[in-house]
Structure formats: structure tokens, C-alpha cells
Amino acid sequence: MKFYLRRIGFYAVTLWAAISLNFFIPRLLPGDPFTIIMAKLQRAGDISPQVENTIRLMLGAAEDKSIWEQYADYWANLFQGNLGVSVTQFPTPVTELIGDALPWTLGLVGTATVISFVLGIGLGALAGWKRGSWVDGLIPSTTMLQSLPYFWVALIFIFVFSVTLRWFPIIGGYDVFGFNGPEWTWAFVGSVIYHAFLPALTIVISSVGGWLLGMRNMMVSTLSEDYITTAEAKGLRPRRVFTTYAARNAAMPSLAGFGVSLGFVVAGSLVMEQVFTYPGIGKLMITAVRNNDYALMQGTFLVITLAVLAALFLMDVIYGFIDPRTRHHG
């Protein structure tokens, strides 16, 4: 119990620090939301004092309060689920923008991460079990693909499969000419899968090499343990030794890394979403930073922080059950 209480206390302090940094860092940047939105409105003509006062109220009248009063209001709004109003897409609430972008990122990056992990762990286990076979020969090529720049792989895929062969679309999350918006139909689901194939392939190719190499090395190390020799001496079938004794224990470090990767799924893939103009959290965050949209920046960073901390905490809990040594020596 002490182990879990220590972990809860650690993540509570980390969450407070992350939220505090999320509040203060954007305010160290030049400019402010009120000035930005007023400059945009003034291009269309003069603004009446009533409109100006309304905008001040909608943005929380931050310029009339001290930084600590704004900090207290920020925490109060968080507990109410209010993340503010976006400046770039005024007057849309930040929660609505994040709610629209989050399913796209979870569906694409989450699925691609799971596929990459399963492929890497499976092939890595086989490569470590059958050293010198054709599976072991995949490691140099996958490692080379992982070392290539992420955006370069995406651009090559677009040039070959979208521009030259015209097998896949260049940008977007679905066919905007065939559908007015997201809808629950098989035709729309097919369009989403069709548009997501190249971005997902980019993620899988760029990340599977790390899982494969890590699992292969852990399998080689695990196979030299005494309990593997004992299992083989007892006459157990090779398949059982492979699955129950070798692969199961070798996958433990990769499982921890997978939990962290799932936490970062919410952050999306900034480069991939920008290259493919995919409507996810990554593209939304880039838009917020470019336009000094404090509320949208804080909202996206907060969601990413919560997801990563939740994934790390979940992995600590799981490890506490799987490996009792972490509860006593962690």
C-alpha cells in the first residue's frame, strides 16, 4: 500500500507542476489573446466600446487582473471543465475543438502504435529465438528505416503513392467532397481508412524497428538465464519454453515502453499530421502555437499531459502487480 501511496503523491505533485507550467509558459510569450483578436476585428472596421467590452468578458478580462488572480481563475475553470475560448476560431470553445480533433488522433496514431508494437514484439521474439534466420535479417533494414527523418518518409510516400501512382489521397482525414462531415456510415468509415492508410504506414515503418531490436536483444538475454536451461532440461516442449518462459519475461521492458507510447498517442504525430494535413491534435497544437492562441495551447498541452501521466501511473500499477520487487524496492 505504501508503494501505491507514494506513486499517487508523486503523480499529484507532477500534475500540479505540469498544470502550473502550462499556465505560466504561454504568458511569457509576446502578445496576448485580447490584442490578437482585436487586431483581426479592426481589419473589418471600427469596433464599438460595447463589442470591445464583450470580448474582454469572453476572454476572462485577464488584462484587468494580476497574474496570480488569473492563476486562481485558471484552476477554478479547470475544475468546471472550462478551458476557455479559442482566438483563432473565435468564439468556439477549446473543449469543442479538442473534442473534434482527439478522435482522429486516437484512431490513427493509437491504431498504428498498437500495430507497430505487436509486429515488433512478435518478430523480435522470433528473431531472438531463431538467431541467424531470415527474421534476424530484418533488423538492419527496419533499424535503417527508423533512422530516416519522419517527414522525409511521409513525403516519399506522398510522392510515390499519391502523386505518381494516385493510389491514395494526398491530404485530409476523409473525402470532403463526398461527405458534409463525420457520419456513422460504412461509406464514411471506408473513406477514413482510405485516407489514414499512408499516415499509419508512415508511423508503423518509422517505429517498428525500435520494438523489434529491443525485443530481440531481450530475448537473447533471457535465453541465457538459468530458468530457461532448467525448463529445457525438464523436457518441456520448445513452444512452451518460447511462449511461457522466454517471450513472456523478455516482453516486460517493452511493455513499459508501450505504456509510455500509448500516453503520447494523444499528442499525435506533429510532423505526420502536418504533412498529411490530418485533422488531429498535433495539427491543432501547431495552429495554436503559430497564432499565440493561449487558451488552445493550454488546452492541448493539458490533455497531452494528463494522458501521459495517466499512462505512466497505469504502468506503475500494472508493474506493481506483475513484479512484486517494484513494490519493495521501487
Defining key terms:
membrane, 330 residues, globular, MetI-like, MetI-like fold, mainly alpha
User: How many strands?
Assistant: 0
CATH topology of the domain at 106-294: MetI-like fold
Overall pLDDT level: 79
C-alpha geometry: globular
Distance linking N and C termini? 12 Å
What is the helical fraction, as a range of percent? over 70%
Low-confidence stretches: none
Indicate the proportion of strand residues. Answer: under 5%
Structural class: mainly alpha
Largest sheet: none
The number of helices is 15
**Radius of gyration of CA atoms, rounded to a whole number:** 25 Å
CATH 2nd-level architecture of the domain at 106-294: Orthogonal Bundle
Question: Can you identify the CATH class of the domain at 106-294?
Answer: Mainly Alpha
Verbal overview:
The chain has a domain at 106-294: MetI-like fold (Orthogonal Bundle), CATH 1.10.3720. The longest helix is centred in the middle third of the chain and has 38 residues, at 186-223. It has 15 helices and no strands. The mean pLDDT is 79. With 330 residues, it is an all-alpha fold. It is a multi-pass membrane protein. It comes from Isoptericola luteus.
What does the secondary structure layout of this molecule look like, with pairings?
Blueprint (H helix, E strand, L loop, with lengths): L1 H26 L5 H10 L6 H10 L8 H13 L14 H36 L8 H10 L2 H15 L21 H38 L2 H8 L4 H13 L1 H14 L4 H6 L5 H10 L3 H29 L2 H5 L1
Helix pairs in contact: 1-14, 5-8, 5-11, 5-14, 6-8, 7-8, 8-10, 9-10, 11-14, 13-14
